[in-house]
Design goal:
There is one protein chain. This protein is of the alpha/beta class. Helices cover 47% and strands 11% of the residues. A six-stranded parallel beta sheet has the order 8-7-6-9-10-11, with helices on both faces. Strands 1-2-3 form a three-stranded parallel beta sheet, with helices on both faces. The protein has a two-stranded parallel ribbon with strand order 4-5. α12 runs antiparallel to α13. The protein binds uridine-5'-diphosphate-glucuronic acid. The site of uridine-5'-diphosphate-glucuronic acid has 19 residues, from α10.
Length: 429
């Protein structure tokens, strides 16, 4: 109820660049009507989008409780001819179960069920929603999918207006266009129709393959550390092959957030349920989760003894967000504490959320300022690649330290410059 009230007041209940503007526009125009009442929301709807959370369940698979609960409640009120579009990230087979629930709850209603996963990134979610990278629609017939493609096309036609209203978004818009494989192609070129099951798999497979690229780079970083090669150079070279491309080959602390870890685990779980060997996906997950321990070993290798104080820069799972779910930075803090270090950490946005996800304890506390992270510590570790940390006055900050040691776990800072100030090391170089 509080979330609905916040939206009614024309605001989003979490931070996402440009979203407040869209919510306000919707409320002011009367086109956006937040309600807790399924009947009010759905009784006249031609198209219903289901965008419900699918967190990790107890066995590692997706917890579909919220999805099926919403489907059952919605089923009572959908009108004849309605199109039901699943946007949530779900395991393959969910659509068929949802269809059965709708039929059991409302046996006489005629409806079409489609799966149309979204591919937006936190921090660039508004622009990714307006100018979609690709539009996948699975299931149903041509009439139904064309109707939904039409809605997305109408939204894309608003791109210029939305970008001009939130100028910071244009920065992402340009990035999006540059990174977008389909840039310069028509809207129709970005559209793909598939069967229901394929559409469901496309979302989890996309995320798992991107996660696999990251894990690959992180594994190569460990090889580089042994032989004196540089993982950034290696991936620059590998990524120049257009069949591979450079994106998601940046070695670091590993992938985190509310999507990749959950989706890889979800794919493992549904693969196993189908009786198919999931060890490849499992290894991707395991190597990723070990990455923080690898970085702790690197820190030990720099001669920082257990019991020393360590400063950590960054807590969010990636820059541009306050989200700390499965954040490698928060997990690093906890791994350092476990190894006997005394840890102080900060972040430009994520301290409050971190306090809940990674509570303070003996030997681990949050500080508000970057200065406090450097004060009296033996080493500082960069854990999240916030642009704010790129050009800090490291010379001056180093004066506050007990020992001048620095580890860049995101390969983000200029090595040559940092080496002049610190006993400096970074991942895979
Ligand atoms: C991800 C996908 O990129 C979206 O396409 C997808 O729609 C979304 O999940 C979702 O399923 O909803 P997001 O979780 O916002 O988006 O974050 P990413 O930008 O993909 O980053 C994920 C993690 O990988 C971060 O911890 C980031 O630091 C890490 N990463 C990313 C690397 O360590 N190296 C890289 O080269 C790229």
């Amino acid at each position: 109820p509080e979330k609905i009230e916040t939206i009614k007041s024309g605001k989003s209940y979490f931070y996402e660049l440009g979203l407040d503007n869209l919510v306000k526009k919707g409320i002011d125009s009367g086109n956006l009507i937040p309600t807790l009442d399924y009947e009010e929301g759905l009784k006249d709807a031609d198209v219903i989008f289901l965008s419900v959370g699918t967190p990790s369940g107890a066995n590692g698979g997706f917890d579909l409780t919220y999805i099926f609960d919403a489907v059952e409640k919605a089923a009572k009120y959908i009108k004849d001819g309605a199109i039901f579009v699943q946007r949530s990230t779900v395991p393959v087979g969910t659509g068929q179960r949802a269809i059965s629930i709708i039929k059991a709850t409302n046996p006489d209603v005629k409806f079409t069920y489609l799966s149309s996963p979204e591919f937006l990134r936190e921090g660039a979610a508004v622009i990714d929603s307006v100018i979609q990278d690709r539009i996948v629609i699975g299931g149903g017939d041509k009439g139904a999918s064309d109707k939904v493609f039409g809605i997305f096309k109408d939204i894309e036609n608003m791109a210029e207006e939305i970008c001009s209203e939130t100028p910071e978004i244009s920065k992402y818009a340009n990035n999006n266009m540059v990174n977008n494989n389909h840039s310069g192609h028509s809207f129709e070129d970005k559209c793909l129709t598939t069967c229901l099951e394929s559409a469901e798999l496309i979302k989890v497979c996309s995320n798992t393959l991107l996660a696999t690229k990251i894990t690959f780079a992180n594994n190569v970083a460990r090889v580089c550390d042994r032989v004196g090669a540089n993982v950034t150079e290696v991936m620059d070279g590998v990524g120049m092959d257009r069949r591979i491309n450079r994106s998601f080959l940046y070695a670091g602390l590993g992938f985190g957030g509310g999507c990749f870890p959950k989706d890889v685990k979800g794919l493992i779980s549904s693969t196993e349920e189908l009786g198919v060997d999931a060890s490849f996906f499992q290894k991707v997950y395991d190597v990723n989760m070990e990455q923080v321990d690898y970085v702790v070993d690197q820190i030990k290798g720099m001669g920082v003894e257990s019991g020393s104080r360590v400063g950590v820069l960054g807590l969010a799972f990636k820059p541009g967000t306050s989200d700390v779910r499965v954040s490698p930075a928060g997990r690093l803090c906890k791994a350092l504490v476990k190894s006997g270090y005394d840890v102080v950490a900060t972040d430009p946005q994520a301290i409050e959320e971190s306090k809940i996800e990674f509570p303070q304890e003996n030997g681990f506390r949050y500080v508000d300022s970057v200065e406090d992270v450097f004060k009296d510590v033996s080493i500082v570790v960069l854990a999240t690649d916030w642009p704010e940390y790129k050009d800090l006055d490291y010379e001056k900050l180093s004066e506050l330290m007990k020992e001048k040691i620095f580890y860049d776990s995101r390969n983000f800072l200029e090595k040559e410059k940092m080496e002049k100030i610190f006993n400096f090391d970074n991942l895979g170089a």
